[in-house]
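Give me structure tokens for this 96-residue protein.
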Amino acid sequence: MKKLFILALIPFTVSAQQQYNKPVMCAQTQQVINTLVGKEYKEKPIWMGVNERNNTFSLFVNQETKSWTLIEFRGNTACVLGAGEESQVSREFPLN
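Here you go.
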């Protein structure tokens, strides 16, 4: 299900600590949001955060199907950082 959406986005490659390359899919922000909240995925944003570079991140989840998508927003561009299924809310996060 998610693969169809991700393939429609423009591929970019980013490097984290110069040790790991990960493809990232990006498109116009409104297109990404419309796809996630639309009839096929029906995901809703349940979390949002901003990092030290003032980039905004949001986690979209469909509570019924348990699908999820993590998005990074930069102006008019939104990038899918990760997506999957079987999401669950953890009541307790271990610190060790």
